[in-house]
Amino acid sequence: MARRLPKIAVLLCGSFARAAQADSLIDIHVQETSTVQAHPSFRSGPDGGNSLNHRADAAATNDVTLFVGVSPWHGGEFWFNPEIDQGFGLSDTLGVAGFTSGEAYKVGKLAPYYRSQRAFFRQTVDIGGTEESVDGDINLHKANRRSDRLVVTLGKFSVGDIFDANSVAHDPKADFFNWTLIDTGTFDYAADSWGYSAGGAAELYVGAWTVRGAVMALSNVPNGETLDLSFAQHQLIGEIEHRVQINQRPGVVRLTAFDSYGRMGRFDEALALGVATNQAPSTALVRRYAHRAGVSVNAEQSISDTLSAFFRAGVADGSKESYEFTDVDQSIAAGFSLKGTHWHRANDGVGAAFVVNDISNARQAYLAAGGLGVLVGDGSLPHKRAESIIETYYRVGLAKWAQLTFDTQLVFNPAFNADRGPVLVGGIRLHLTK
User: Fold this and answer.
1) Domain 37-62+156-433 classified CATH 1.10.1760?
2) Where are the domains of the chain?
3) Which among 50, 55, 41 has a CA at the least distance from the CA of 97?
4) Which of 123, 240, 260, 398 has CA atoms 20 to 30 A from the CA of 187?
5) What is the C-alpha separation between 71 and 86, in angstroms, rounded?
6) Any residues with CB less than 8 A from the CB of 344 and at least 6 apart, and which?
7) How big is the CA angle at 37 (ends 339 and 189), to the nearest 5 degrees?
8) How far is the CA of 13 from the CAs of 5, 9, 150, 245, 310, in angstroms?
9) What pLDDT digit, counting tens, does each position of 3-22 carry?
10) Crossing angle for the helix pair 361-368 and 267-277, nearest 10 degrees?
């Protein structure tokens, strides 16, 4: 008797068989984003190696991205995102753990330069459920799909494209600016200095639930510009998502966990070596293969046709250096967004949020002894306090393809240093898309 193929194999074969009957679909989109941020002088002690400049300062960024996609068969998509970047974050993207601009990379350059940020393949396999119509968008082809489906993504992309998503706070081109509002501050996700990694992810949608998993490459060195494509240093990511209805309004709860395995330094070992050599501690001198893990919860809820709220909270292993993202071991954030329909500006939007970031005792001791982290390090830390940030923005819909956003952030205890700040940061963002 012939052995039956597993159901998933039958579905995959059927998906590819429809390729012969489907016309190739080519999508091209382009977007441009320019930002300017500035702050006045503020109360400060001496600046350290990773301090926010206490004098009045300003910085600007620009990027232009092309999104080219081809769908050669049903459910299959190839996407390529070439990009030109230019500019700097405030103080070269240093001095605040919850950094003030998601458009500012860890690598800044005065002259425009080219990067291939994404190059990936995605296959969607329908399993069952109801049929859905998906509008075409950036990195997403217009298509019909089933509510129950398997989605596999392979190549180079951002972990944030798939994990820790949130419709209220996740897009530095459209909503909040702050790093630890658009992503959970403790989610030390695999990424190069521009926020992209390589690997594979799978998502299974069944009813009101989605389960996601991924294996992604870490940088060759923490906070590095190049990826370890041998996957000797890698990150495992898992996420469970549950879609809910509260008062007949949609909401989502996501639980995300990660485990990074790579050459990283422990704070206590760096401190011990610093004492023995009479030098400032450096985790770079004591790196060896180890694990660093963390977990976070991320929720969003529609309250009315125009008002939505979000909440994030996370913790991560505070005994070792952060590998990729920022120097945060505990984080909690919440906020809302409101559409401008109430004041007859349907394409406008306003948002407000706060985030409180904190660090472990081990990281505090390391920074107090003069150690430098990914983004912070004032040379000393005589009075440690949690870093707290309040952000508000108003987004003006100039046209269907153009948005202008005015943003303010008030940063208390930048880099967990109660002797510095508060710092008022103002920002303007112009975003064009087609």
Assistant:
1) no
2) 37-62+156-433
3) 50
4) 123
5) 31
6) none
7) 75
8) 10, 6, 14, 35, 40
9) 333 443 334 334 433 433 34
10) 30
